[in-house]
């Protein structure tokens, strides 16, 4: 294996076709080329790693525990000679999931063995990472090596002859070339997609919501969508309470009804199973979140689900959620009609009195009330007024405009009203002006009006600031009230016992009834009490109300279930380990531990006991890898910490997820 294959060296990147920019933009160009170069180096390194993990080391088809034929058929063709355990080792090394690691190896092998020219162009900087996806998706699957190599060469030459080529332009060019050369890859792509058909649930961006994704053929997907639409169109929400549902909401409800409540069909009845983790504080009114099948959900959804299943009484009190802060309503303001002459005269007289009071208070040094602008601001207004007045010309100045001069007739000039009356100032009705009113008196009156407008603006701003402050204080008061309420005290409790102490008598009684309830109705099992470590959240005991009372009468403590004498754990032990681990304990894996199996003995039975300290939950794939992948080491501590060492010497640890 040479240095290029193991990813040690690569040629220096070439200059962009548009040239190197100066300054920060040039640095961004260099960084982009370095990213492309490192991507190529990683591809070569992963291909070299895959070569050290041959599939010949795996259990061959026909042997017990070997990869299933379905799993083998769903793997990309380039992974046929690679061990199925290589992806698990890469997942630990790169902190990614095992499917993502398998995809990384697949793309690396595709670049190295099927698109070598593209890999070299990536190293040289002629391509960037975004160009890879259309090449990997459309060019790499071509079966004929000569056709694939010729198309790869022509595409690289086309890119080199252009100054700018975006991934979208490259994808369009590839589609045209495939059609022109009559290269058919759709059949192979469809075959691979059919192998990936399935349904999965992924978390949505909002807690308490999830997306159900189904990968189907086009006819299946369109038929399903059309059927759901027809069911939705047949529903009538006109007589229901609340706002009518949208068509999309109806389709979602119809899908739930058809799958979970099929009605009269020839299919056998099935019962969906959900594991709901509801903290005591959430059930008695606090805001601690819960879980539904390991998905975090708000406390309100936990309570709604419990009430919907009949687990908690629906008293309609509406006190489960924090109170909404009251909206501060600003005081009503007195509005006037500016066109009313009497009102205008009253306001003008009031302004004159207010102005006189302002001057008197300022001279006495009493300025500074919360309704008044600062004194220095008022002094700036007066100084600006004096400066403006000093610039006005004298009455005998020949250059003074006649329309504003001392001989100007009342109601004339550019600001005159259409009917010749004096123009109202500041939106208020003005008093009649005598014909011999000097121009400087009019100017002084205009300045006074402008000053009053500014002061009125300051007064309104001060009132607005006080309203905002009142709203803030009201919000704090509401928050304080809620913190002192039962729901607030429950939410602030540091443990379940403290939360119960703050709960109302009715809520404690409802919780006790829930815990005493046996299986039946909509429950697959009676509710369990998870006793957890207050600091770490680790599961200590999984019990119920009856066992708690029995332990109290007998004066004994509680702990994990006793070990089973057989290979299969007993019901209590199986339930405890699954509740403790919840998902596969392999680092980075999010698959659930399958029901009815996959609880692995760290020390093989019968040398190792079937106990909580010796059992750990895996998904099927990682359980097989624990027993079959050569060179791996698994250790499990008494506290439940799993320590995994890979053949490359990497070490990863996982702990049970906290409650």
From TrEMBL:
Xref: Pfam families: DUF222
Source domain of life: Bacteria
Domain DUF222 span(s) in chain numbering: 74-307
CDD domains the UniProt entry points to: HNHc (cd00085)
Compositional bias (Low complexity): 8-18, 309-332, 406-427
Ranges for region Disordered: 1-21, 52-74, 309-337, 394-437
Protein name: DUF222 domain-containing protein
